Amino acid sequence: MTAYIISFIAAMILGMSKSGLKGMGILIVTMMALVYGAKASTGIVLPLLIFADILAVIYYNRHTQWKYLIKFLPWMIGGVLVAVFVGKDLSEEVFKRGMAIIIIISVVIMFLWERYEKKNIPTAMWFAGSTGFLAGFTTMIGNLAGAFSNIFFLAMRIPKNEFIGTAAWLFFIINLVKLPFHVFSWKTVTQQSLLIDLYLIPGVLLGFIIGLKVVKLFKDQQYRRFILVMTAIGGIIILLR
């Protein structure tokens, strides 16, 4: 019963995250990993992410900025393909350590970036390439792409709704790309994992509805700060696990 409660809360947080309350991905990953294990949990979380992506795409579609998505997506797909082969045989302990390192680096980079907020928006290909590749690699390894994609979109100075709408399509596409690898290569998406997902989908839907109401309360600058704070909290949580 305790495991189900933790999972349901994680599903609600997932729904809230996809509604626009970014930066909470590590909370979801940490809670699900505690219940199901680091690697197995990725296969349980992925179908829930796709379901929430569909909700987000429907709601925020009109705000999507395709020029940023096209610039970022190919690099992200490249990161996914590399991670498929690197991560297939990784042990549980390596998975956990990898997640911790990813979050520490992400939080540091994001806070440093905000410190130099007055700098020009980066246009060099290396910036989109490096953040996109790392986002793809980390989303395949542990569904942790949010931190790196947040860095890119924050750097582009995209307004709140455009940020959410563009990210919605980005992750909907990339999660569909990941799905066959989880089914046929890693074998983390199974009939058993999908059965667990059926019980958790109401939590995702409830969280999404709650999240929409909360997002409307934020102004653009407040929204940027919220993303940074939530990512930092997530980093602290995984360090203390």
UniProtKB/TrEMBL annotation:
The chain crosses the membrane at residues 44-61, 68-88, 94-113, 125-151, 163-181, 193-211, 223-240. Belongs to the 4-toluene sulfonate uptake permease (TSUP) (TC 2.A.102) family. This is Probable membrane transporter protein. It is a multi-pass membrane protein. Keywords: Cell membrane, Membrane, Transmembrane, Transmembrane helix, Transport. The lineage of its organism: Bacteria, Pseudomonadati, Bacteroidota, Flavobacteriia, Flavobacteriales. It is found in: Cell membrane. Pfam families: TauE (PF01925). The keyword Cell division does not apply. Signal peptide: none annotated. Its main location: membrane.
